[in-house]
Amino acid sequence: MLQKFEISACFHSGGATPEIEAMYNGRHRRGVPSMNLDPDAIEKYRTRLRHKVCYHLGFLCPDIDDIIQETLSRFLRVQATENIRNPGAYLSGVCNNVILEYRRQLWKQGSVERFGPESSPKGDHALPALAVEPEADSLELRDAIRAALSQLSERDRNLLRSFYLEEKTKQEICQTMSMSDGQFRVALFRAKDKFREAYRQGLKHATPSGH
Amino acid sequence: MGDSFADDRLVREEMIRDYLLRKLDREATEALESLYLSSDECFEELETGRLLMLGLGQARVEAQRLEDVTVLRFTGPASLIRQSQEMYELFDGVRQQSDTKVLIDLSSVSRIDSSGLGLLMSCYSHAVKNHGVLKLINPNVEFRNLLRLTRIDSVLECYDNEGAALQSFTQS
């Protein structure tokens, strides 16, 4: 069993930890110029960092929350004393470091990286770790995606499929669907916006609170 | 990157698509990630693109009942790789089974990585926890070699065809 990823802050998922709250409050007490980093902004970063960490380590990684939390802690520690000019780039860099350290730690512990791209099973450690379950709400989300797609016209779906999945060029799509460059742009973004709106509406109906 | 992202929506969309398809180089990946970490608009476009690709590319898992065994198979080509939608589909397919004897047909699975192998083990442990039996059928040659190399085949039984797998249930 893989040892717990050792991190400096006390971690728990969801909401700002006491450490993060303390850093946030401390920053204000010291009069460091605000970067509009309120708890809501931290949660926003958390969501986006989740995307990044999952992208690089896969959603089956059991330590995603710890990595996000460590990233946020480091970021806020620096942010408490310095003005960070480009928070997105800085946060991304910090997250890259934490991911790298996490990978190194796995190797140091003699564990094969079992969910990352550099996976290379060796010897007796070859059995992959038991994966954590995908997000509990994934089934509902997928239903919402399907429902939203079903509300688009066949032409819109074909256009989106050609662009996103079949990776056809603009020229190829225009030729196949007999449209001009301008028409293609308008049709593509309208289809995407229609999908987004239908998806949002679907989620609203699925959860009465709208969340 | 910020300028080009804001200026041309099509360029941005192509960038997002390539990122999601893992076709951007390291530098461009880092630039896009930095951008979506700070830009609401960029993150929203990325999320919508991701959802769209998930929806458009879904290969569903179908369940077929053969005697007292349920066979789960993909309706189209599938990849059991990190973040693939098929991973979710398969795991949900296994979780939703009330039958105790389940076969996973791998004939449509062309790619698998360590996450996919981990998922198969999760499916297996889920079945065992629920007093069930889970076996694999129709893996391609590479897949079978991988199962042997990782010794997963010592835990998860694997058969070359449906008939042999069905027979194994009767014998056990």
Please describe the topology of this protein.
The complex is a heterodimer of chains A (211) and B (172).
Chain A lengths: L17 H12 L9 H19 L6 H16 L7 H22 L29 H13 L3 H12 L4 H8 L3 H26 L5
Chain B lengths: L1 H6 L1 H12 L5 H13 L1 H17 L4 E6 L2 E6 L3 E3 L4 H11 L5 E5 L3 E4 L1 H16 L3 E5 L3 H9 L8 E2 L2 H10 L1
Parallel strand pairs in B: 2-4, 3-5, 4-6, 6-7
Antiparallel strand pairs in B: 1-2
Q: What would you say this structure looks like, in words?
A:
The complex is a heterodimer of chains A (211) and B (172). Chain A is built from eight helices and no strands. Chain A is mainly α. In chain A, α1 (18-29) packs parallel to α3 and α6 packs across α8 (181-206). Residues 6-15 and 112-137 of chain A have low confidence and may be disordered. Chain B has 172 residues and is α/β, with parallel strands linked by helices. Helices cover 55% and strands 18% of the residues of chain B. Chain B has eight helices and seven strands, in the order ααααβββαββαβαβα. Chain B has a five-stranded mixed beta sheet. Chain B has a two-stranded parallel sheet with strand order 3-5.
Tell me which oligomeric state these chains represent.
Answer: heterodimer
Detail the poorly predicted runs of chain B.
none
Radius of gyration computed on alpha carbons of chain A: 22 Å
Describe the sheet with the most strands of chain A.
none
Strand order of the largest sheet of chain B: 1-2-4-6-7
Cα-to-Cα separation, first versus last residue of chain B? 61 Å
Helix/strand-derived category of chain B reads: alpha/beta
Shape of chain A: elongated
- The number of distinct β-strands of chain A equals 0
Measured between the Cα atoms of the first and last residue of chain A, the distance is 36 Å
Strand content of chain B: 15-25%
Number of helices of chain B: 8
Structural class of chain A, please? mainly alpha
Mean pLDDT over the full residue set of chain B: 86
Rg value of chain B: 20 Å
Assign a percent range to the helix content of chain A: 55-70%
Tally of DSSP β-strands of chain B: 7
Order of helices and strands of chain B: HHHHEEEHEEHEHEH
